[in-house]
From TrEMBL:
Domain of life: Bacteria
Keywords carried by this UniProt record: Molybdenum, Oxidoreductase
Pro residues bias: start-end ranges: 70-86
Domain Aldehyde oxidase/xanthine dehydrogenase a/b hammerhead: 19-125
InterPro entries listed in its UniProt record: Ald_Oxase/Xan_DH_a/b, Ald_Oxase/Xan_DH_a/b_sf, Ald_Oxase/xanthine_DH-like, AldOxase/xan_DH_MoCoBD1, AldOxase/xan_DH_MoCoBD2, AldOxase/xan_DH_Mopterin-bd_sf
Keyword match Oxidoreductase: yes
UniProt lineage: Bacteria, Pseudomonadati, Pseudomonadota, Alphaproteobacteria, Hyphomicrobiales
Disordered: annotated span: 65-86
Pfam family, one: MoCoBD_1
Official protein name in the record: Molybdopterin-dependent oxidoreductase
């Protein structure tokens, strides 16, 4: 593969998207389609004692009401993120948990029917607020190395602070939805998911059928980032309705119910102590994180350490972590799930330490460059964090920034501040299998694992196929997210491009070689399609597979049989640690009377290895920055201590930032391949995009006002 930067091509789906032609799963029409609506529990916790469906069945158009008696009993053992298993059950673990499913000829009848279902409950006490947790902290073992206590005792400059990141909910444009179709003894599920294979496995298990009978088709997702990484509560119930009624059934879950039933970012308290020696070197870090979890949730509390224990090569690190159990749905992944909250806390703490030392925060970070992952002792592959910081500072115009807060003023007299924040994120990879067929009729068909959740997966694959093959790009079809065309894995953890692109590069190379063999030295004019036509070959089809560093054929086998085989979790490979890096620079304006915070400009420089699709990579970083600043200034999921669940369960009261809320976001890339990580040199951009940006904003607020705000979101009232 050539080392030339890839051209800045438009997204291959751009025209379809702006013309509304892109079909999301709930857009797929079916004759005879039934509509479903869930009946959410109205209590915080307890037992369903009876369900009266009579009034619901009397609504014209209502066909059936499914209750816990109509779904198979949940199988024993772990299922996604408990509690409870994603089926209808009598035990209510949290407010909003579906109790019943009403199926009707029209959506209106389904909604009216759902409102007519009468449910009786036996109430139980519950706790939903972090401060109301009714049981003790459960500790998890966390990364610890060196002797942080001894080093802290010898430190000459120390800081100690507690930071809080509050619960946040996913609010993508596309609502969670499932359409289930039974035909010829097979179940096909149309659903926007990041893990079509995991969905296939879990639904088969829940419905007690063989996984070979289930297909999952998820070609387009209107926003992923972790919300669609597990089987939602309703999917198997909708599939069961379709099985019982022998007709296709569709459910689009209303946003208000999604708040209660889908994954969210938990509330976390981060306690940090940092110590530096007389030379200003960070020699000790203590980091404790305490997160909210559900009663039986398995969302890990120790993974907040993934970034902080590696980023600055601090040799003495003591990590601790724990859970407080509450009565909600399980918290789980949401873009940079551990790295965004931990970077807010840790990068704020680093800023506090730099300030205590009288050092410039960029220069202070530059002085902590490292070639070693201190947590494992392994070599770090390509680490361009210092280039990100240096280039970002230059583009931002950081030089001459006064160290003292409250001294910078914008042109109109507004208090101004400049903040910096940095981040790391794992460069992980999943094995993949791809088939590529180039036909004489001008068509190219490529099928592999991967999910297009708006991030540009198809565009990245198209970039390498178009660069590597002389084909007609207008007639290139890329089939992903579909269990019928290739073994699927889940697209998450920023391993999407690193998993889907190397195998696409290999496919292009193998196709080129296959055609060359056919040509046998002859010169035949035209592109590949024309050459095949002249050779009277209708098509060439090849298959290729690719594993991650340190993996072997058993990992491909696991992929083929429906398992996950991820490599590079937390950047850890057998021989090295591979990470993506970023530096964000944020200018903050604080209006002196209202204390309203504005962000006129951001500069972000990322090292994500080789940039495959400049357009979508840039867009990922812009989106990540908007999201981080939204989390820093607006987003908070408020719990309801009276009735359980979430109080501001709609986008009128849960404020999501949009591009127009932020001024200019200037994004650039180091664009240096990392060939340790994979043969395409890709490290991943989806989540690193947002890491450290919230801290850069908070550090900017400190620089503007002298106020160190340690709880997100930062609001006007915190600055008065
Ligand atoms: Mo991502 S939060 O791993 O989809």
């Amino acid at each position: 593969m050539s080392r030339q930067p890839f051209p800045d091509l438009a997204r291959i789906d751009a025209f379809d998207k702006v013309q509304g032609k892109t079909k999301y799963s709930s857009d797929v029409p079916f004759p005879d389609l039934l509509h479903a609506m869930t009946v959410p529990a109205t209590i915080g916790k307890g037992m369903v004692t009876s369900i009266d469906v009579e009034h619901a069945l009397a609504v014209p158009g209502v066909v059936r009401v499914l209750t816990p008696h109509d779904t198979p009993p949940p199988p024993p053992g772990p299922q996604g993120s408990p509690p409870p298993p994603p089926m209808l059950v009598h035990a209510i673990a949290y407010r909003g948990q579906p109790v019943a499913l009403v199926v009707a000829e029209t959506l209106e009848a389904a909604i009216e029917g759902a409102e007519a279902v009468r449910v009786s409950y036996a109430l139980e006490p519950f706790a939903v607020r972090f401060e109301d947790a009714d049981a003790g902290r459960e500790d998890t073992e966390s990364p610890t190395f060196g002797d942080a206590d001894a080093a802290f005792a010898t430190a000459t400059t120390r800081i100690e602070a507690i930071y809080t990141t509050t619960a946040n909910h996913h609010n993508p444009m596309e609502l969670l939805s499932t359409t289930a179709v039974w035909a010829g003894g097979r179940l096909t599920i149309y659903e926007g998911t990041q893990g079509s294979n995991g969905l296939k496995n879990t639904v088969a298990q829940l419905l007690q059928i063989d996984r070979s009978m289930v297909d999952v088709i998820s070609p387009q997702i209107g926003g992923g980032f972790g919300q669609r990484g597990e089987v939602p509560r309703h999917t198997a119930v909708v599939a069961q309705a379709a099985r019982l009624l022998r007709r296709p059934v569709k459910l689009v879950m209303p946003r208000n119910q999604i708040f209660h039933n889908s994954r969210f970012r938990p509330h976390v308290q981060h306690a940090i102590k940092l110590g530096a020696d007389a030379n200003g070197k960070m020699i000790s870090a203590h980091y404790d994180c305490l997160q909210q979890n559900s009663r039986r949730g398995r969302y890990r509390s120790d993974w907040y350490h993934a970034g902080p224990c590696k980023v600055y090569g601090i040799e003495n690190y003591r990590g601790t972590s724990g859970d407080l159990r509450l009565d909600t749905h399980g918290p789980a992944q949401m873009r940079a799930p551990y790295e965004h909250p931990s970077a807010f806390a840790f990068e704020s703490a680093v800023d506090e330490l730099a300030f205590a030392l009288g050092r410039d925060p960029v220069e202070f970070r530059l002085a902590h460059d490292t070639k070693i992952d201190a947590s494992t002792g392994k070599r770090l592959t390509s680490r361009h964090l210092n280039e990100c910081l240096t280039r970002g500072a230059e583009q931002f115009g950081w030089t001459g920034r006064p160290v003292q807060p409250g001294t910078l003023k914008a042109a109109d007299g507004t208090m101004a501040g400049w903040g910096v924040g940095a981040g790391v994120y794992q460069a992980a990879m999943h094995p993949a299998i791809a088939t590529l067929r180039v036909s004489a009729n001008g068509v190219t068909r490529y099928a592999s694992a991967g999910h297009e959740m708006g991030q540009g997966m198809r565009t990245a694959i198209a970039q390498v196929l178009i660069a590597g093959l002389r084909i007609d790009p207008a007639r290139l079809t890329i089939l992903i997210g579909d269990t019928t065309v290739a073994p699927q894995h889940s697209t998450a953890g920023s391993w999407g491009t690193a998993s889907s692109v190397p195998v696409a590069v290999a496919a292009a190379e193998k196709m080129t070689a296959a055609l060359a063999e056919l040509l046998d030295g002859r010169k035949v004019a035209g592109n590949m399609h024309e050459q095949l036509a002249r050779l009277r070959r209708p098509f060439i089809e090849i298959e290729v597979s690719m594993v991650a560093p340190g993996q072997g054929p058993e990992h491909l086998e696991r992929l083929k049989t429906g398992g996950m085989a991820i490599a590079g979790l937390h950047g850890t490979y057998p021989d090295f640690t591979a990470l993506s890096y970023i530096a964000h620079f944020v200018e903050v304006h604080v209006e002196p009377h209202t204390r309203r915070i504005r962000v006129p400009r951001v500069v972000s420089v990322a090292d994500c290895g080789r940039v495959i699709s400049p357009r979508t990579a840039r867009s990922q970083v812009q989106g990540g920055v908007v999201w981080a600043l939204g989390a820093a200034l607006r987003e908070i999921s408020e719990t309801d201590p009276r009735y359980g669940g979430w109080l501001n369960a709609d986008i009128a009261e849960y404020h999501v930032s949009v591009n127009a809320d932020i001024g200019k976001i200037d994004v650039s890339f180091i664009d240096e391949p990392d060939f340790d990580a994979n043969s395409a040199g890709v490290k991943g951009i989806g989540e690193i995009a947002m890491v450290g940006a919230a801290a850069a904003l908070a550090n900017g607020v400190f620089h503007a006002t002298g106020r160190r705000l340690r709880t997100l979101p930062i609001r006007v009232e915190h600055l008065i």
